[in-house]
Specification:
Keywords: Amino-acid biosynthesis, Isomerase, Methionine biosynthesis. The protein is α/β, with parallel strands linked by helices. Helices cover about 40% and strands about 15% of the residues. Bound molecules: 5-S-methyl-1-O-phosphono-5-thio-D-ribulose (MRU). 5-S-methyl-1-O-phosphono-5-thio-D-ribulose binds near residues 42, 167 and 246.
Length: about 350
């Protein structure tokens, strides 16, 4: 399986996802600025992977701080965290990971600063290791919505490349493959940055999984032919009422699934559930540059001065979602009650 992120000898190594699928280039990130740049430019992307990268970004940022009293060190740490948090606004895992790093520092405030730096490095490593276990569990819970012989449609990339291992939406598919099931996948191309065609097809093909690429506007036709048994997508933020922000186009796929009576599932770790955000309307949606639409991948496809609107995510209302597959089980409606329940210790259905 691919290694999306690897922390070694004080450096973070990532696959530069902007180069995929033609080049598999591993780059070393050595400074907080390089980490910010990698997140902003989508060299590392996908909600869980962004959170993990940011945690390591904190480690890289504090490495050379000379402050030796806790308060001055903590002020600098907060600045680093705020800076990393300004890289992308929608995936809540980014803020969750930064918050966890800040809290860990505070918990250890009476220890020498050099020791706190070491503790924070261990914390970032734990965040990554936990994500791996969580994704595996999402796969085990999510396989419940699959059957041998199923064809799944997915949008964007919520696979290995978006996490530390296994992925979220793709985790049940990897598990089904391990069990020897005959599973097929249709991957939406995912305009404008083509995470579906560049990343999802790439990683599924590497794993020997039968995948067919379609452009986003072909999903309705493929569904109408009866070829899709279930849709599974990832998520960047789940609001307290179960509305889900995910890659632009997800909402359309959910509407199409409803129109064709196809179950629509969202998969994500509980770290993507944000009970502090009441509804999807409260989620900040990242807007990206005009060049991604008028000149994607270097080829001009629209007049250079045309007006452009380029939201990177949309919100799927909870009523279109049959279930949210988490590491604690599958959460179903009523989401406002059942999402809170999983944080109180009781799981969803398994
Ligand atoms: C497990 S990743 C889930 C989501 O982060 C994924 O579906 C997505 O929308 C990624 O968007 P991206 O802009 O590529 O970071």
């Amino acid at each position: 399986m691919l290694k999306t992120l690897e922390y070694r000898d004080g450096k973070l190594y990532i696959i530069d996802q902007t180069k995929l699928p033609t080049e598999k280039e591993i780059i070393a990130i050595e400074t907080v600025e390089e980490c910010f740049d990698a997140i902003k430019k989508l060299k590392v992307r996908g909600a869980p992977a962004i959170g993990i990268a940011a945690a390591y970004g904190v480690v890289l940022g504090i490495k050379d701080l000379e402050e030796d009293d806790f308060n001055s060190f903590y002020n600098e740490l907060k600045k680093i965290s705020k800076y990393l948090g300004s890289s992308r606004p929608t995936a809540v895992n980014l803020f969750w990971a930064l918050d966890r790093m800040e809290k860990k520092a505070l918990e250890n405030k009476y220890k020498p600063v050099e020791e706190i730096k070491k503790i924070l490095e261990e914390e970032a490593i734990s965040i990554q290791r936990e994500d791996e276990k969580i994704c595996k569990k999402i796969g085990e819970n999510g396989i419940e919505v699959l059957k041998d012989g199923y064809t799944i449609l997915t949008h964007c990339n919520a696979g290995v490349l978006a996490t530390s291992k296994y992925g979220t939406a793709l985790a049940p598919i990897y598990l089904a493959k391990e069990r020897g099931w005959n599973i097929k996948v249709f991957a939406d191309e995912t305009r404008p940055l083509l995470q579906g065609s560049r990343l999802t097809t790439f990683e599924l093909m590497e794993a020997g999984i039968d995948v067919t690429l379609i452009t986003d506007n072909m999903a309705a036709m493929v569904m109408s032919k009866g070829w899709i048994d279930v849709v599974i997508v990832g998520c960047d933020r789940v609001a307290a009422n179960g509305d889900v922000a995910n890659k632009i186009g997800t909402y359309g796929v959910a509407l199409l699934a409803k129109a064709h009576n196809i179950p629509f599932y969202v998969a994500g770790p509980t770290t993507t559930i944000d009970l502090k955000t009441p509804t999807g309307k409260d989620i900040v949606i990242e807007e990206r540059g005009r060049e991604e639409i008028i000149c994607g991948f270097g080829k001009q496809t629209a007049p250079s001065n045309v007006k452009v609107y380029n939201p990177a995510f949309d919100v799927t209302p909870n009523e279109l979602i049959d279930g949210i597959i988490t590491e604690k089980g599958i959460v179903r409606a009523p989401y406002d009650i059942n999402l809170k329940t999983i944080f109180s210790g009781a799981g969803g259905e398994n």
